[in-house]
Write a structure and sequence with these properties.
There is one protein chain. This protein folds into two domains: about 1-100, BirA Bifunctional Protein, domain 2 (2-Layer Sandwich), CATH 3.30.930; about 110-205, Anticodon-binding domain (Rossmann fold), CATH 3.40.50.800. The strands form three sheets. The protein has a five-stranded mixed β-sheet. Helix 4 (about 120-135) links the parallel strand 6 (about 110-115) and strand 7 (about 140). By secondary structure, it is α+β, with helices and mostly antiparallel strands. The relative contact order is 0.09. It has helices spanning about 1-15, 75, 90-100, 120-135, 150-155, 170-175, 200-205; strands at about 40-45, 50, 55-60, 65-70, 85-90, 110-115, 140, 160-165, 175-180, 190-195. GO terms for molecular function: ATP binding; histidine-tRNA ligase activity.
Length: about 210
């Protein structure tokens, strides 16, 4: 309608007061939630090419989107209150910031706590708690039905540095077995230590 066109003209005029008018384009084919928005809608896109870890160009879509919704509040309050808002795709925004080297991500891989026997599940979570309380990035293997070999295969794929392995003997003797997953093949990469030395021994390996 003419009213809508006038609104866009006013918005573009206000935008011209700043330095980014050249970053704004009108697109009359965009459709967003017709039962939600009742005015202008906005979608933002990158002004540079994004690539994945393999260097292949990828289209990550809109980073930030929104618009005008003058009748939204009436659904809850029974009165029309004009509103405008936008939502940001946080994961996409972080991806973009990493592309521009504007954010550093700690990619330290977690120590994996293997689950050998479901009846000791509480004990495994106690170990996990000890590690996290000492600022050691760690996680527990959630599928206890998978054998140790498959759990270690998963840990290797995740590039986890250490696997904590505890069975009935370890719990009886109050010890833990640590497997250095980044060790040299052929070396003895596994050792059993007292539980009270767990944190210090793991810190030597990560």
């Amino acid at each position: 309608s003419q009213e809508g066109i006038k609104e866009l003209e006013d918005l573009l005029e206000i935008a011209s007061y700043g330095d980014y008018l050249d970053q704004i384009k009108t697109n009359f084919t965009i459709v967003r939630g017709l039962n939600y928005y009742d005015g202008f809608v906005v979608e933002t896109n990158l002004n540079f090419k994004a690539t994945n870890k393999k260097g292949k160009e990828v289209d990550i879509g809109s980073i930030c989107s929104g618009g005008q919704y003058n009748k939204l509040i009436s659904r809850f309050k029974g009165v029309d209150i004009p509103g405008t808002g936008m939502s940001i795709g946080v994961d996409r925004l972080l991806f973009v910031m990493m592309q521009l080297n504007q954010i550093k991500v700690d990619e330290k891989k977690p120590v994996i706590v293997c689950v050998m026997d479901e009846k000791y599940l509480k004990n495994y979570y106690e170990i996990l708690k000890i590690l996290r309380e000492n600022n050691i990035n760690s996680e527990i293997f959630l599928d206890s039905k998978k054998n140790l070999g498959k759990q270690l295969t998963y840990a290797n794929k995740r590039e986890c540095p250490v696997a904590v392995i505890c069975g009935e003997n370890e719990f009886k003797e109050n010890t833990v077995t640590l497997k250095n997953l980044l060790g040299i093949k052929g070396d003895n990469n596994q050792k059993t230590v007292k539980k009270e030395n767990l944190v210090n021994e793991i810190k030597k390996l990560i």
